[in-house]
Design brief:
Blueprint (H helix, E strand, L loop, with lengths): L1 E13 L7 E11 L2 H14 L2 E4 L5 E15 L18 H17 L10
Antiparallel strand pairs: 1-2, 1-4, 3-4
Length: 119
């Protein structure tokens, strides 16, 4: 068995969908014996986690699973190894840096962010 990172893509549709298209990209850790197995398992997770609910404005919100867009094998766990990278382009660099620093402060100095427990 190997460990893989699989990128699952969901489309978020709110109300009648008359808004800027939104997509959620999720990286999931999956154990599998082959590329085909990890792909099927990742698709199963995505389909299982589709959901529909009403937001606080009573608009229907749909999380629609699109597909698995990427799979990466993790050959070994190395301290500090890069698992994912994405270039972010923003109109306002200072605002983006402020958001990143604010999130970092929340991690260290408040209890609002907890470490992800995978169990």
């Amino acid at each position: 068995m190997n460990w893989y990172l699989a990128k699952l893509i969901f489309r978020i549709v709110c109300g009648d969908g008359e808004h800027t298209p939104q997509f959620d990209e999720q990286l999931r850790l999956i154990s599998a014996g082959s590329k085909e197995e990890v792909f099927k398992k990742a698709q199963h997770v995505g389909k299982k986690e589709q959901e529909t609910f009403y937001n606080r404005r009573q608009q229907l919100v749909q999380w629609q699973f699109i597909n698995v867009s990427e799979i990466y094998v993790i050959s070994e766990l190395i301290d500090g190894a890069e698992l994912y990278s994405r270039i972010e382009e923003r109109d306002n660099a200072e605002a983006y840096i402020d958001v990143v620093n604010h999130k970092a402060n929340n991690i260290l100095f408040t209890s609002t962010h907890q470490l992800l427990q995978l169990a």
